[in-house]
Amino acid sequence: MQALTQSGRAAGPEGNEPVPAPRLSGADWWRGAVGYEVYVRSFQDTDGNGVGDLAGVTKRLAYLAALGVDVVWLTPFFASPGFDHGYDVSDYLAVDPMLGTLDDWDELSVTAKQLGLRLFVDIVPNHTSSHHEWFRQAVDDPTGPFRDYYVWADSAADGGPPNNWVSHFGGPAWTMDPGGTGQYYCHLFLPEQPDLNWANPKVMEEFAAILRTWCERGADGFRIDVAHGLTKDPELRDNPQLRQVHESMHPMDVFASFQHIYDLHRHETAVLFQQWREAVADLGAVLVGEMDTRDVDRFAEYVKDRNALHAAFVLQVGLSDWEPATTITTMLEYQAKSNGGAAWEVSNHDQARAVSRYGGGELGLRRTLALTTLMGAFDGMLFIYQGEELGLPDAEVLGHIEDPMSARNGEGMWSRDVARGPMPWSTDPDKGFTSAAVAWLHTEPLPAELTADFQTDSPHSTWRQYRFMVGLRKRYPALWQSDFELLEQGVGHVTIGRNDLRIVGNLSNAPISAPALDGADIIFQSATDAVSLVQGVTWVAAEATVVGRITARLVAD
Ligand code: GLC
User: Could you tell which of 187, 225, 315 is best to mutate to test the pocket of ligand 1, judged by most ligand atoms within 8 Å of the CB?
Assistant: First the structure.
């Protein structure tokens, strides 16, 4: 067996240094973009309070530009009491003093533009904080104009919550009005996160103004939190229950025990997104929704044409475990139905890191790279989560749990903290993240090989491999601009053609022959042993993706 290396046909992370490419342009620029999610609180602290901040993001933008990404998605940095670490907003137009100031935002925005990076602000429209002025007024004045900004309902006949809806974070999705009216308010997350009433057109007006303000201040787009939420069944009917729930269950399992047809995934939300699109159309902002659905048709409706969201995260793939056959089938279904509006990712701040979820260690990293490379050949945006480019596994959390979903539901519950550890910039005791004695989320030190300092200096690091992969769309625009041709589909593997490019994604656990790559120049392989020639036949190793370019003669054939 002959391994194909740099000698003529193959290219990999080493060699072929990416050439800086111009910023993507045109109205559809986002279709070719690679984004990077910054979990702001854990990226870089500059003021020594142990919490990452906007100035820290500015400081590290050059690192992101060097990686080659186009978009930086910043998790919420608005004023917030922090019950859900910023996803409980008390003022959408103010910066949380713990994370900086509006001046810091301005500097971040100017620096990003200089470096050719675009910024996505994470907007949280399903709910506010209970400390938001709107909610305070809604409680203080039940007959006033803000009451109808939220979802209120009378109690059930027995005095209990109005229906069987549950919160993602445990317990019922209803809490009694602190103002003493006897009504309940709805919260699909914490009681401190009351749900907004999107049936009230005033709420849209408020958000249109908020979105426009951020665009005018330099935002290029938005990640929309819980975009599959927002509207509710006007009759507030019970959700069908799929299985019994019991007290010791994890809140995520309790939530999954119901079919969420009345509290989430509503057709009315798709109608609303037309208004979102109109609200920012003249400012060119790109809207990308968080879309936690298993219903590809509903997903398609939310991104369906130029009147809906530009794109949405395919959490059905991004959230799952290593399931090669299902993953390929599901990705192809989204590809076929979603108008190029998929945003692909293998992890984010809400779940176990991909390396750990896919088996840990070298195996987990190999699988992560194979799947991410393959996603980059599908229509839509590709996102990388902070630290993924270093191959980080789940963090070992020392000390107390921060994630409210776990902290409030008893000892030993799985927590999202594992994905939120401070970024390991260096081998300093504080990881180069903070000068505080301990970071807000205290995690086990990491070996030198996992730090950014080490990996950006090393010619064979995971970071270099990511940089090479991230640059593929720039160097070979056919990867996102040419028609997507499904050339072959097997159990856990797929071959895609895009003009002269051939992408073979083999997520299965056995090598496959890949005639589509015969005679091709190998542009990228997700693992060094990914492609080989055996008696004149090209093979792609298990759990690897290979991108090749066939010659003009072969295209013509
Ligand atoms: C989204 C966020 C998550 C947050 C939740 C409530 O799913 O990604 O971090 O806890 O919404 O806002």
Answer: 225
At residue 410, the pLDDT reads 81
Is ligand 1 within 6 A of the CB of residue 189?
Answer: yes
Band (40; pLDDT cuts 50, 70, 90): very high
Cβ neighbors of 486 (< 8 A, separation 6 or more) are 332, 494, 495, 496
Give the tens place of pLDDT for each residue, 88-120. Answer: 999 999 999 999 999 999 999 999 999 999 999
403 ligand 1 Cβ < 6 A: no
Using a 6 Å cutoff on CB, does residue 226 contact ligand 1?
Answer: yes
467 phi, psi to nearest 5 deg: -60, -40
Looking at residues 467-486, what average pLDDT do you find? Answer: 97
pTM value is 0.96
Residue with CA nearest ligand 1 atom 4: 87
* 432 contacts: CB under 8 Å, gap ≥ 6: 424, 425, 426, 451, 452, 453
Secondary structure of 238-279 in the HEC alphabet?
A: CCCECCCCCCCCCHHHHHCCECCCCCCCCHHHHHHHHHHHHH
The mean pLDDT value for 43-51 works out to 98
> How many other CB atoms sit within 10 Å of the CB of residue 534?
11
Per DSSP, what are the bridge partners of residue 531?
A: 540
Q: According to the model, what pLDDT value does residue 557 have?
A: 40
290 as an active site residue: the answer is yes
Secondary structure (3-state) at 146: coil
